[in-house]
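Figure 3 (text version): structure tokens given as input.
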């Protein structure tokens, strides 16, 4: 059945206008973006197929053009539009963080990091550099691959923090395995970086582990 044949209150666009975007499911939001389905499938059905295939919205955004193109009804133009929406979302969150104290809006930091790291298939280490008012000065992806004390260099982190004249930093890295638990290596790495930065009077506010849409905070677990 086409969406136009649904009761008006159940159609994603009308539902959004009447009740707001927050009440819509991931599939309904994606269906509004898709606009139309394919023969035998509504836009919502196609959206559900995408979510089933890639696991989540982050999974869809992280998929390559070739992977998106393997889904019937999707092509390069839809891939480009998806990437544009994803990048706009990340930039909007980044703008908000630059304008306010990140400690006053920790969920915003988590949302940004999930958008940035949640769908990646390789492990990366990101540093957010903050000023004395805890506003984001810059953020950089400094290392990638298997992250250990030997692959993440404290000297490089200190160098970049001094370059940005940062008063504090927030670390984040992802676990492509999908499990947001800290390892002993994660703890040792954090301690090593914290000690190196303390020598130049730069504080470590937190270290987040991102696994899909889930995050773990070292600060909340008392690991800093």
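Below: residues designed for each position.
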């Amino acid at each position: 059945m086409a969406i136009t044949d649904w009761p008006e209150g159940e159609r994603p666009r009308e539902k959004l206008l009447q009740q707001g975007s927050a009440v819509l499911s991931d599939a309904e939001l994606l269906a509004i973006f898709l606009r139309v389905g394919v023969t035998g499938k509504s836009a919502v059905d196609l959206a559900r197929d995408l979510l089933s295939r890639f696991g989540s919205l982050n999974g869809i955004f992280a998929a390559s053009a070739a992977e998106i193109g393997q889904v019937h009804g999707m092509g390069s133009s839809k891939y480009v539009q998806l990437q544009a929406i994803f990048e706009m979302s990340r930039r909007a969150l980044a703008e908000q963080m630059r304008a306010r104290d990140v400690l006053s809006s920790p969920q915003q930091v988590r949302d940004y990091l999930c958008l940035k790291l949640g769908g990646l298939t390789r492990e990366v280490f990101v540093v957010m550099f903050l000023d004395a008012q805890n506003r984001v000065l810059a953020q950089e992806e400094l290392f990638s691959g298997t992250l250990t004390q030997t692959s993440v260099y404290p000297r490089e982190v200190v160098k970049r923090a001094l370059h940005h004249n940062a008063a504090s930093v927030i670390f984040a890295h992802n676990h492509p395995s999908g499990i947001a638990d800290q390892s002993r290596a994660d703890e040792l790495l954090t301690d090593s970086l914290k000690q190196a930065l303390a020598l130049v009077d730069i504080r470590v506010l937190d270290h987040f582990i991102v696994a899909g849409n889930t995050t773990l905070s070292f600060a909340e677990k008392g690991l800093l």
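The first helix runs from residue 12 to 19.
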